[in-house]
Amino acid sequence: MSSWISRATENRNAQLVTTAVVSGVVVGSAILGFQKARRMYRVENLKASIPDVDGEHHASRLTEYGAASSIHSPSKEDKRSTELAARARKGDYDDDLILEQLARNRVFLTDDGLAKLRSAFIIVVGCGGVGSHATAALARSGCSNLRLIDFDQVTLSSLNRHAVATLADVGTPKVHCLRRRLEQITPWTHFDCRNELFSEASAATQLAPDANGQTPTFVIDAIDNIESKVALLAYCHKNGLPVISSMGAGCKSDPTRLFIGDISASTDDPLSKSTRRRLRALGVKEGIPVVFSTERPGPGKAQLLPLSDAEFKKGDVGELGVLPDFRVRILPVLGTMPAIFGLAVANHVILAISGYPQEYLPSKNRDSMYDGILGTLQGSEGRIAKDLGFNQEGLRIPITKDDVGYLIEEVYNGRSVISGLSTRLALVRWKKPDRESFIDRRTPGQNNTFLKMNDVVCVTKEEAAKHEKEVLRGGKEPGEVWDGKVVESVRQKMEEEGRYERFR
C-alpha cells in the first residue's frame, strides 16, 4: 500500500489531481461553513427582532383553518368607528338619531313593526356575496342583534360580489370584515362574529340563544356547500327555528326569474334540487322558504365546466379544495346576482319579523295525486303476485306516500321517463321480478313484496298498463318494448338514485 502511495506521489499528473481534489474539498467546506454560519446569524437576528409578549405586543393564534384570528391593524378612522360603536352599544347614542336614520323604514313598517325588527336576534350563516348583502341590508334597516358565522376569508375574487369588502380587507375573516365596515354605518348594532365552519356537529352551539338568552328570531342560510346547507336547514326545521335559504346564484343572469317560495316549489336550479332531495330523504319536504331562480341554462350562457383531464392526472382532486366536499371548480358568478339574492332574503326576513303582509308561491300540494299513484302501484304488485302464485290478499309494499313524492318530484322531475309527459303519472316496476326474490321472507308472518325505490320508474298510466302487460306479465325485456334511449335514461336515473340512497 505504502509503495503504491509513494509511486503515486512521484507521478506529476497524480500530484495535480490530488491537489485539485483536496483544494475542492477545502473550498467546498469553506462555502458550506460560511452558508451555515450566515443562516445561524440570520436566525438569531430574526429571533432577536421578535418582541416579547407583554402589554404592548400581543400574540395571537391562527384559526384551525389557517386564517388570521384577528383583523389587520385598523386605521385611525377604523379606530374612531370602533370606539364610537363600543359607546353606542352601551347606550351612549341618542335614540332620536337612530330613529332619524331609520325614518324611511319607520314610516313603511310602522313604529310597532320597526320595534320588532330592532329587538330581533338574527343569525346569518355564510357571509359571502349573498350573506354580506343580506347582513348589510338588515343592519341598515334596524336589526340591532346579528350573529355572523363563516369560516372563510376575503379574497381578491370576493370583491366582485361582496357588499362591503375593500382591498384592505383581503385576507381578513369575512365576519370581521362585515362587522368592521357596518359599524361605520350602524354603530349601535351588536355583532357576534363566529369565524367558524358551520356543521351538523356544531349546530346546537352556533344556533344557540344569544348572551341575553334570546333564541334566534330568524336564521338566514347563505351557504354554498351542500353538506352544511342541508345540516342547517334540517336542524332549523327540526327545532322550529324560522329560516330562509338562498339557492344558487351562480350562472344566473336574469333578475326577472327570481322567486321566493316554498322549497317544494323551487325548480330549475341544481343546488335547490340537491337540497330538496337530501332534505326529503330526511323527512323534510316542505315548510322552508327559499330564494331561487327559474332561469335555465342555454347556448352562450355561463356554466360550470368540468375539470380538465390534466387536473385529474395531477392526483387527488379532493386536495384542490379548501375543505373536504367543497367544490374545486370556479363557479361563474355575475356580481349583481348574489346581491339580488341577498337583498331578497333580507326583504323576506324584514317583512316576516315586522308582520308586514306577504305571500308565497303556492306549494305543489299533490298529496292526493301521490295517494292515487301509490294505490296504482299496490294494484300492480298484487297482480304480479297472483301471476307468480302468491296470495295477494293483505299484500303490502314497503313504499310510502312520501317515497312516491320523492320519486316523482326529485328523481323523475314530475315527468314520464318514456314520453316526458307530466299528467296521469304512475309508478311501475321496471323489470319482472324472480319468484324467489318477490316476497320479503325476512319476517315470518308478513306478506309484503321486496320492492326497492330503485326498482320502479315514473311513467304515464297508459305506459304503465302497456309495460305491465308486456314486460311484467308478458315476459319481454324492457328493451324489447321501449327504445334504447328510454332504457339508457332509466339506467342513469337508477344509478343516480343509488348515489343518493346513502342519505336516506
Explain the overall architecture.
Catalyzes the ATP-dependent dehydration of threonylcarbamoyladenosine at position 37 (t(6)A37) to form cyclic t(6)A37 (ct(6)A37) in tRNAs that read codons beginning with adenine. By secondary structure, this protein is an alpha/beta fold. The chain folds into 2 domains: 76-297 and 304-354, Rossmann fold, CATH 3.40.50.720; 367-503, no CATH class. The chain is 45% helix and 8% strand. The chain has 18 helices and 9 strands. The protein has helices spanning 2-10, 12-49, 76-89, 95-101, 103-118, 129-141, 174-182, 203-206, 226-239, 270-281, 309-313, 336-354, 367-387, 401-411, 435-438, 461-472, 478-481, 484-500; strands at 122-125, 145-149, 190-194, 218-221, 243-246, 258-262, 289-293, 425-429, 456-460. The longest helix has 38 residues, at 12-49. Mean pLDDT is 84; it is low at 62-69 and 316-328.
Question: Keywords, please?
Answer:
alpha/beta, two-stranded antiparallel ribbon, 18 helices, Rossmann fold, seven-stranded mixed beta sheet, 504 residues, 2 domains, 9 strands
CATH topology of the largest domain: Rossmann fold
Q: Round the mean pLDDT to the nearest integer and report it.
A: 84
> Uncertain runs with pLDDT below 50, 5 residues or more?
62-69, 316-328
Shape: flat
Proportion in helices? 40-55%
Second rung of CATH, namely the architecture of the largest domain: 3-Layer(aba) Sandwich
**Radius of gyration over all CA atoms, rounded:** 33 Å
The ordered string of helix (H) and strand (E) elements is HHHHHEHEHEHEHEEHEHHHHEHEHHH
Q: Look at the structure and name the CATH superfamily of the largest domain.
A: NAD(P)-binding Rossmann-like Domain
Terminus-to-terminus distance: 82 Å
Number of helices: 18
Order of the strands making up the biggest sheet: 3-2-1-4-5-7-6
Transmembrane segments: 14-34
GO biological process, one term: cyclic threonylcarbamoyladenosine biosynthetic process
Protein name: THIF-type NAD/FAD binding fold domain-containing protein
Family: Belongs to the HesA/MoeB/ThiF family.
